[in-house]
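Recap from last week: sequence in, structure out.
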Amino acid sequence: MKKILIIGGTRFLGPALIHELIKENVEITVFNRGNDYKSVLPKSVKRLVGDRRDVRTMGILNQDSYDLIYDLCCFNKIDAHNLLIHIKPTAHIVFLSTAAAYKKPLIYPVTEQSELGKWDSFGDYGTQKVDAENEFKAFSKKNNLKLTIFRPVYLLGKNNYFDRENYYFSRIINRDSILIPGRGNALIQFVFLEETAKAFKIVPEKQTNQIEVLNIAGDHYISVKDFVLLCADIIGEKPNLIEIDSKRYKLKEDHFYDDFYPFPNLTFIVSNEKITQKYGIKFKPLYAGLHDIYLNWKKTWKGKTKIYPLEKEMIEKIAKS
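Predicted C-alpha cells:
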C-alpha cells in the first residue's frame, strides 16, 4: 500500500486531490494546523496537527516513511527547508509552485524552459516560490529522489477561497458595478480544480525523469473584460462594467488590487503542450468548466455581494467625476 503525506490539504486543492488519490489502495496522512475550512475528509485519512513554521511540531513527520509527499502550502525557501529537514529521504515530492515564478516575458506563451525571476506584477510571490523550488531540487538531487513541480495559472473551482468566480457571479446577478482595470484587454488563462487534482495524481505515476517541471493551464485564453462578459453570458444577464482610468487614479493596471478586482490587466499565457502531450492530461473548455462552477455556486450562494471598502470608495470617486 502506497503511503502518502499531504502538507496542507483541507482548503481547496487538497480535498479534490484526496478525492482522486483515495480511488486507489493508498494510506493518506494530512499534516496541517488543524483547520478544516468546512471540508469533510474521508474517515480513512489520518490527521497530524502541526505548523510547518513551528519546528517544534515538525518532528512528528519523521516518525514514518512516505512514498509520496504533496506540499500544497509552501511559499518560500524557509517553508521548504523546515519540511525537508524533518522527513525521511524516501519520498517522491510533488510541489505546488506557480506560473508567477517566470520572469516577465517578451514572447508568449511561456514554456517550462522560460527564464525564472522577477515579475513586478506579482511582487515577491513568484521569486519566493522559485527559491522554494530550488530547495526541493537540491534535496531531490542529493537523495536521488523524484520531484514534480507544478506551475499552475489562475485556478477556478468549487469552493474557491479566492474571491474570483463569486466576485463576478454575485455582482452580475445583483447588478452591482464591476470595476475593470483599464480596458481589460490583457489575455489571461485558467485551469479548473478537478483537472488539476487529476494531474497531481497521474503525473507522479507516469514520471520517469528525476525532476519534472510542468505548467498547468487550460487550452483557452481570454481577455480580462471578456471573462466578465463570459460569466454574464452564462448567467444570462448584462454586467455593469466600469473601466478605470488607471493614470487618472494613479493605479498600475498590471498589478493586483484585491479590493478592486480579482485579475489585473496583465497578459499571462503559458504553454500546456508538455503536460498534454507527454502525460495525456486533458483540460475542459473554458465555457463548459465555468458553467459547471456557476451551477454549483448558485446552489450555495446566499444572495449577497461582498463589496470591499476601497472598491466602494473607487466607485464613488468615478461617479463624482
